[in-house]
Specification:
This protein is of the alpha+beta class and 98 residues long. It has one domain (7-92). 30% of the residues lie in helices and 18% in strands. A two-stranded antiparallel sheet has the order 1-2. The termini are close together. InterPro entries: Hepadnavirus_pol/RT.
Length: 98
């Protein structure tokens, strides 16, 4: 499974906004309030979100799975035959997975 728009789901802290200003071709300035890929702090923030996501999925499946993660990729291995692909889909349906 893959988290959609991984870093774009995390809001930046107000103290980071000055470094996230972008200018359009029309000369208008905007603050990008979401963590862009490549921002040094983005990986740490996403790591916390991913760890929490992993814990939520495991809890929803009553510990019947082992979940390995790498950045925005999650490998879900069932420990019990009663855990089906539909069970995993149901447990992650509201978590924005592709």
């Amino acid at each position: 499974m893959d988290g959609e728009d991984t870093f774009r789901t995390c809001l930046a802290a107000r103290s980071q906004w000055t470094g996230l200003v972008v200018q359009t071709e029309d000369g208008v300035f905007y603050v990008d309030m979401f963590l862009p890929f490549g921002l040094v702090s983005a990986t740490g923030v996403w790591g916390l979100v991913a760890d929490t996501t992993r814990a939520i999925i495991a809890a929803r499946l009553d510990g019947g799975v082992v979940i390995l993660k790498w950045i925005d990729d999650f490998l879900i291995i069932r420990k019990r035959p009663s855990i089906s692909l539909n069970s995993v889909r149901a447990a992650t349906s509201d978590l924005n997975f592709a």
